Structure to design on (237 residues):
């Protein structure tokens, strides 16, 4: 299954936080691969041995409590040893209500260069406000992605007027808008894409989508504003 994280690993254009749900082995493997890419690119050296890197933190919790949340926030606020950034992989089997709420501010105002990968059994275990601050990768939701991809492809190939018509049903739904941006990035990041785009052109489009994603994750993020901007600004492919 293609995922937004796989696309970000290939492009090197990462979001500050990811929520990976479903099979723990699949999620862990993807998060570790992303961590190597992030820390290698920021430090300029090979970091294949993540466990010896002081800017890497990986821990599993049966129950993630309020004290764990405070300690994570404290670790995240500390200066990175390499001076470029840090990566946290947190496997959580269950949250306490207090700890989930305590994480909201951490993901709402992330430190520059710090990336989080939160691994959980199911999206149902995570409160909606926390989900809305993270890029979601559901390892058990390939059907939704497959159904949505054709609409995203048509959006990229249509003229602005038709694009505006096609997005009307998701203009007020932030999560649907985030999912749609995921699909756009996955299509554009596919190395076997039929569109004739050179590297710089593709990079500009992906960077514009990433800026829109960051805006959507903010408190003021408006799905209508973001989608209409993309409908008018992205080149027709």
């Amino acid at each position: 299954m293609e995922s937004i994280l796989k696309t970000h690993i290939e492009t090197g254009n990462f979001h500050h936080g990811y929520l990976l749900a479903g099979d723990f082995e699949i999620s862990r493997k993807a998060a570790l691969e992303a961590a190597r890419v992030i820390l290698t690119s920021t430090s300029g050296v090979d970091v294949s041995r993540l466990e010896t890197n002081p800017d890497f933190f990986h821990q599993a919790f049966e129950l993630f409590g309020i004290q764990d949340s405070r300690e994570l926030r404290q670790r995240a606020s500390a200066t990175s040893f390499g001076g470029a950034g840090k990566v946290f992989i947190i496997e959580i089997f269950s949250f306490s209500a207090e700890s989930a709420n305590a994480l909201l501010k951490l993901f709402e105002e992330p430190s520059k260069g710090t990336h989080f990968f939160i691994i959980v059994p199911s999206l149902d275990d995570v409160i909606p406000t926390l989900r809305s601050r993270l890029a979601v990768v559901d390892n058990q939701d390939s059907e939704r992605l497959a159904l949505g991809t054709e609409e995203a492809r048509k959006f990229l190939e249509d003229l602005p007027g038709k694009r505006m018509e096609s997005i009307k049903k998701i203009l007020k739904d932030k999560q649907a808008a985030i999912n749609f941006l995921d699909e756009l990035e996955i299509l554009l990041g596919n190395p076997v894409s039929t569109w004739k785009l050179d590297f710089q052109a593709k990079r500009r489009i992906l960077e514009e989508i990433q800026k829109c994603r960051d805006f959507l994750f903010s408190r003021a993020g408006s799905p209508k504003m973001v989608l209409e901007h993309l409908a008018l600004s992205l080149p027709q492919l």
Notes: The chain has two domains: 4-138, 142-233. The radius of gyration is 18 Å. The longest helix spans residues 24-43.
